[in-house]
Amino acid sequence: MKVEYFEDEGNSKLLNDGFVSIKVDREVRPDVDKAILIKVKEVCEIKKDMLVKNGTFAIEQLSEALSTSSGSGKLTNGVSNEALRLC
Question: Which residues have a Cβ under 8 Å from the Cβ of 63 and sit 6 or more positions away?
Answer without folding.
Answer: 87
